[in-house]
Design a protein that fits this description.
Bound molecules: (3S,4R)-3-hydroxy-2-oxopiperidin-4-yl beta-D-xylopyranoside
Number of helices: 13
Strand content: 15-25%
Radius of gyration: 24 Å
Mean pLDDT: 91
Shape: globular
Length: 455
């Protein structure tokens, strides 16, 4: 919840500041203002992806967060996390009506305190499902499914960027049929749409995704998912995104129509996300496959982010296939370099670059006498521990309130210097934002941002 602080300082104007602000204000009013403290090629996955308007995430296990190299690789390289197991039904509702959120909370807190996004995974799935669910009769199962969705989403309401509402509901192979599960077998095809409607009501701000594997290219299974999404969009069933797990190996390599498949889903009016990427192999072959996946996502404007299914090979669910970007000693593999390059970044900084940040402004609500502004602060290619930026308003405008930041003022009262509220840590490429109310006093000019400085 945003904390609101009222601030008032007497304005003092000079002709010179009015002139300068007038010009800059015009520029700002023409569009989004983006100012950066330093300009260098992004040298981490998260920062490089952020420059392309996307996130780069990883699956995280709570029990590894205490390992220094694990946490530092996470904090340096990624700006989104997916709990690998901690939000699954068996973890959060092991017995009916009894919810345990501790392990997942540790991941969410770790991410939030560093400005990383969180993907919620997963609400309704046939696997990692406690046996009590399968023993329920139809009416009880329906109530339990809806209660599970509502309770879990409410617990993290406002903190989850996208939820995998339903996971893996379709069969492999050529049938295009639904997979047998307690939900499918007792509630019928309608369980998926019911789950999405319940999810929308529980956290309207979260993007709601359908997530599956073996749907990465055009095939019978992805056709079945495609038809479902098309039907949902046509009938107004709430769905915002489709997740493509993208678990690849020698038998299941990156399909040649991967990009085309992402694009046809995007053309239905949903975002697409690569949600569990890992590619078994090593060396150049593995690197090339990773590069192809990243390029496909970047070529699809509605492909909003990529998540790899783990940080280091040693903790991968398929460890023997060494499918990830870092080896067991957290060394960057050729696949890492290929991903960073495909994202437009550069490895020269090695992740140890200088602290930097950039700021963008966007106008929010407006009334006849005032408007709210929001400034988003994004860390550059290295993790930062704090940031500072300025917001200058045009007299006789006055800033009457601020939130999510700690302001100080110059003697004129027109220039506000904003610092974090408490912890200012941001992972590379991660963002936070603060807001303020500008009293127009007859002038609607946009505020002007100074450059962002980070430490
Ligand atoms: C896997 C985890 O990585 C393992 O630790 C766990 O033992 C089994 O589940 N599809 C999914 C993921 O949606 O939740 C699965 O994660 C991998 C396949």
């Amino acid at each position: 919840m945003a904390t609101r602080t009222s601030i008032r300082k007497a304005p003092r104007r000079t002709a010179r500041t009015t002139l300068v602000l007038g010009l800059a204000g015009l520029l700002a009013a023409a569009g989004v203002t983006a100012l950066s403290g330093t300009a260098q090629a992004a040298s981490t996955l998260g920062a490089a992806a952020a420059e392309k308007g996307r996130y780069f995430g990883t699956a995280v296990a709570a029990n590894h967060l205490g390992e220094a190299a694990y946490a530092s690789t996470l904090n340096t390289e990624f700006n989104s996390v997916t709990p690998e197991n901690e939000m699954k039904w068996d973890a959060v509702e092991p017995s009916r009506g009894s919810f345990t959120y501790g392990a997942a909370d540790r991941i969410v807190d770790h991410a939030q305190s560093r400005g990383m996004k969180v993907r919620g995974h997963t609400l309704v799935w046939h696997s990692q499902l406690p046996s009590w669910v399968g023993s329920l009769g139809t009416a009880d199962l329906r109530a339990a499914m809806n209660n599970h969705i509502t309770q879990v989403m409410t617990h993290w309401k406002g903190k989850i960027h996208s939820w995998d509402v339903v996971n893996e509901a379709f069969q492999d192979g050529s049938s295009g049929a639904r997979r047998s599960s307690p939900f499918q077998d007792k509630l019928g095809n309608g369980f998926i749409e019911e789950a999405f409607r319940t999810a929308r009501a529980a956290d309207p701000a979260a993007k709601l995704c359908y997530n599956d594997y073996n749907t990465d290219g055009v095939n019978a299974k992805s056709n079945a998912v495609y038809n479902m999404v098309r039907d949902f969009k046509a009938r107004g069933v709430p769905i915002d995104c489709v997740g493509f797990q993208s678990h690849f190996n020698s038998a299941l390599s990156v399909p040649s129509d991967y990009q085309a498949n992402l694009q046809r889903f995007a053309d239905l009016g949903v975002d697409v996300q690569i949600t569990e990427l890992d590619i078994e192999g090593s060396g150049t072959a593995q690197a090339n496959s990773y590069s192809n996946v990243v390029k496909a996502c970047l070529a699809v404007s509605r492909c909003t982010g990529i998540t790899v299914w783990g940080i280091t090979d040693k903790y991968s669910w398929r460890a023997s296939g060494t499918p990830l970007l870092f080896d067991g000693n957290y060394n960057k593999k050729p696949a890492y370099t290929a991903v960073l390059t495909a994202l437009g970044g550069s490895g020269s900084g090695g992740g140890g670059g200088t602290a930097s940040c950039s700021v963008t402004y966007s106008k929010q609500e407006e009334w006849s006498d005032r408007f709210n502004g929001r400034v988003t602060v994004t860390a550059g290619s290295s993790a930062i521990t704090s940031w500072t930026t300025t917001v200058t308003v045009t007299p006789p405008q006055k800033i009457s309130a601020t939130w999510n930041g700690t302001p100080t003022w110059d003697s004129s009262g027109n220039v506000m210097t904003m610092r974090p509220n408490g912890n200012g840590s941001l992972a590379a490429g991660a963002s936070t934002s603060f807001g303020f109310t500008v009293m127009k006093n007859g002038n609607s000019a946009a505020p002007v941002l100074g450059s962002c400085t980070a430490s």
